[in-house]
Amino acid sequence: MAILLPKARLPTDCALKGHVVRRFGLLLGALVLCGAISASQSPPARLFQEAINLMETKGDYPAALRLFEQIAKGSDRNLAARSLLYAGLCYEKLGKREAQNAYQRLIRDFADQTGLVTAARARLAALTPAGSSSASRSMAAHRIWTEFDPDSALSPDGQRLSFPDWTTGDLILIDLQSKQKRSLTRKGTWFDSNEHAYGSAHSPDGKGIAYAWINRQGVFELRVLGLDGAGPRVLYRDPELRYLQLAGWSSDGRYILCTFGLSGGRNQIVLVSVGNGSAQVLKTFDWRGPGRLSLSPDGRYVVYDLPQRDGSLDRDVFLLAVRGSHEVALVEHPANDLFPIWTPDGNRILFTSDRTGTFGIWVLSVVDGNPQGNPELLRADMGKTWPVRFAPGDSYFYGVQTTMQDVYVAELDPETGRVTAPPSQASRRLVGANRWPEWSHDGKLLAFVSNRPPGGQDLPALSILSLETGKQEELFPRMMFISRLRWSPDGRSILANGRDERGRGGLFRIDAQTGDVSPVVHSGGPSFARQSAWSPEGRTIYYAMGAGIVARDLGTGQEREIRSGANDFALSPDRRFLAVPREDPPSKSSVLEIVALETGQSRELLRMPGSGAFAHVLSWSTDSRFLFFTKDRGQTRELWRVAVESGESKKLGLAMAGLSEVRVHPDGRRIAFSAAEFGGELWAMEHFLPPAEPSQTASER
Fold first, then answer.
1. 410-427, pLDDT tens digit by residue?
2. DSSP, res 53
């Protein structure tokens, strides 16, 4: 489950952070059928790419809208429907109500374009929540905040947000009325320290905040501080913790409910005392750790979601008594049921389910820790949302994911490196949900990761596109997360960083025909490798995981360290050099070094001011003469390259929001890359809950 949102710069162990964030994710787009890269495009298709360029590269939404509206009148139904979807997104960016009209037109006039209709319904549901029942028709929803992600925590009165500032790692508090921000911690810059905050939770009286903190030694801590300036105070610290997720405070302010992830893959539901920091373990799990936790208002019960069985990625909802041994499955269903949250009266839970085919919010009565009656649908077609909390007046706050990311292909001059034509989308499937492109060694195939939504989670598919036939096939490896693909030299398998179906991080080999997964290296926790590469003969792999770059013999399993203190690299096509970025705290700059594999000698190639300057793109040209990288320019990133011999750098005429992961085609004349507009919104829905009904006898759920 993943929601991928912008992080300006993460510390070395950011994979741990990513693991926690992705547990809260939802859908990243809808199925969009047909289409591939073609050497020649029809005039409407070229016009569509021009509109995309205006929208995503230049941010000229009015100009893009004119083209999208023109294309929407054409005879190509798929292209017309896609144009309406993007027109709606442009209208949203401009804050205009016409966005709803665009989505409604798509739903009404293009019912045959099922994937696009699904995407339009999701956006329409987020903008104008309305349901099929009489109760839901009276609901009123409004957008509260436009820069929201799952790491944000809302105060009990719904007036303040706390969240990590990923430009520094500090915990920030913002007043939603005045829009004033203040930093609650003072750790300095990333050059000063890699310690940082992420998850947080407000105390019931609104006077304090608990938050998770990774200290200078990389150890997780649970801390609390007062909004009056008191603290911070370390409540709990354990070197065995691999992650720590805050669920919330008890209503009396005495305890904080958490999920602990321990070494060896175990997970625990824990209550930590605010008074003395003691930890009461309520339940210990194997790899099937709980997702969303919620403590009942009376403090007697915890509800949570959990995978249905070993190997299942769908979830059910369970209840656990804080005292005693009472446990019960509240919601058991073949569908994916997740994100349980108690209502303010403590007599019901809400949960999200896809049992109707799309995600909706359901309600179930609970009496004395047991389910009563059957779940009832409260709100259908909620789209990519997740629950945040209830606030006074039964206002229901929820997050909406708005991220759109895709894989693009652009032509370039191999001599000058200049991009010679506007980029085009690599695929028309799963619009807004494609990432991590990689060319096969013979240049005939393009592989990338697509986040297909068959259930409630952000499930990855491995898409393989043939440039010769235009046919796109999809494999479904049993993995929770896949990233940074690398084709084997023989084209039979793909090396991927990520986490398997049990949440174990590491490096994995995926069969390119069957999708079967075999581990190469396990990390011992949820973290995974940052980079990997094959040797030319395919017998050795290079990877970075932890605090160094390692070469591993696939036959013997023996490893040797190539470079310590590095967690990122790019291996040159001639396999002679590594490009290794590093930070230089004294000068507060980023340095790109070239390391000779044979001798281990290194030299500085390029230096840029700021932290993480080479984090987004680091890719070699096919002749090993140049390295590609990006520079941030406002809302976009520019593509640059630097000559390995001379150190001369220049920009290449390509700039897009979220540009990253550039991969050069073996012919040197094309590049594939990802571009994204990351985002999330906070919404509130009034008059959401129907009146509680008298309890019924428990029946089939």
1. 999 988 999 998 899 998
2. I
* Cα angle value 72/77/82 (rounded, 5°): 60
Which tokens go with 355?
């049992």
Q: Render 343-392 in DSSP notation, one character per residue.
A: -TTSSEEEEEE-TTSS-EEEEEEEETTEEEEEEEEEES---SEEEEEEEG
CA distance 121 to 132: 14
What pLDDT score was predicted for residue 520?
A: 92
Task: Read off the pLDDT band of 28 (50, 70, 90).
Answer: very low
Instruction: Please tell me which residue, 354 or 615, carries the higher pLDDT value.
Output: 354
Long-range contacts from 578-587, C-beta under 8 angstroms, 24+ separation:
578/542, 578/549, 579/605, 579/618, 579/620, 579/627, 580/549, 581/613, 581/614, 581/615, 581/618, 583/190, 583/191, 583/611, 583/612, 585/191, 585/192
Token digits of residue 186: 């003072």
Measuring CA to CA, how many Å separate 78 from each of 70, 117, 120, 122, 369? 14, 11, 14, 18, 50
Query: Of 513, 517, 508, 514, which Cα lies nearest the Cα of 554?
Result: 508
Q: Which amino acid is present at 342?
A: W
Tokens, residue 621:
């040209």
Residues of the chain with pLDDT > 70: what percent?
Answer: 89
Rg, Å, the chain Cα set:
25
Q: Percent helix, strand, coil in the chain (nearest 5)?
A: 15, 45, 45
CA 264-334-282 angle, 5° bins: 40
pLDDT of 295 over the 90 cut: yes
Question: Residue 593 is encoded by which pair of tokens?
Answer: 């070094």
399 bridge partner residues:
386, 682
* Assigned token pair, 249: 């405070």
| 216 conformational bin, left if phi > 0, alpha if psi -120 to 50, beta if neither | alpha
Q: What is the DSSP string of 91-143?
A: HHHTT-THHHHHHHHHHHH-TT-HHHHHHHHHHHHHHS---SSHHHHT-EEEE
Question: CA 403 to CA 435: how far, in whole Å?
Answer: 12
| Residue 460: Cβ within 10 Å count | 26
pLDDT in tens, 537-556: 999 999 988 778 999 999 99
Q: Which residue is associated with the tokens 């320019």?
A: 633
The count of C-alpha atoms lying within 13 angstroms of the C-alpha of 194, restricted to the half-sphere facing its C-beta, is 14
How far apart CA 200 and CA 208 sit, in angstroms, is 10
Mean pLDDT of 624-635: 90
HEC sequence for 540-607: EEEEECCCEEEEEECCCCCEEEEEECCCCCEECCCCCEEEEEEEEHHHCEEEEEEEECCCCCEEEEEE
Ordered by where they begin, the domains of the chain are 14-31+403-681 (2.120.10.30), 43-112 (1.25.40), 150-288 (2.120.10.30)
Question: Could you tell me whether strands 636-643 and 626-633 are parallel, antiparallel, or unpaired per DSSP bridges?
Answer: antiparallel
The DSSP line for 296-332 is -TTSSEEEEEEESSTT---EEEEEEESSSS-EEEEE-
Determine phi and psi for 689, rounding to 5 degrees. -90, 130
* Cis ω for the linkage preceding 334 (within 30 of 0): no
